[in-house]
Amino acid sequence: MKKRFALLMAGAMMISVLAAGCGSNGGKQQDGSAAGSSTADKTTFTVGFDANFPPYGYKDENGEYVG
């Protein structure tokens, strides 16, 4: 009885995974870019980090933040 229940649950999980993989993307593009955006909108990339926790962030010998 337990074996049949386990097989039934495994089958249900497989079907749900397959069904989720066949869903639509809602009209979004696959490459991650928004429709109608240009490269001029994507010229700045700002990253914040805490320089007090090396090696994730620290100042090198030139005084510039690295990490």
Structure explained in plain terms:
- There is one protein chain.
- With 67 residues, the protein is mainly α.
- It is built from 1 helix and 2 strands, in the order αββ.
- It has one helix at 2-21; strands at residues 58-59, 65-66.
- Strand 1 (58-59) and strand 2 form a beta hairpin.
Low-confidence stretches: none
Helix content: 25-40%
Let me know the average pLDDT.
Answer: 75
Shape: elongated
Structural classification:
mainly alpha
As a percent range, the share of strand residues is 5-15%
Question: How many β-strands, per DSSP?
Answer: 2
Helix and strand string, N-terminal first? HEE
Key structural traits:
67 residues, mainly alpha, elongated, 1 helix, 6% strand, two-stranded antiparallel sheet
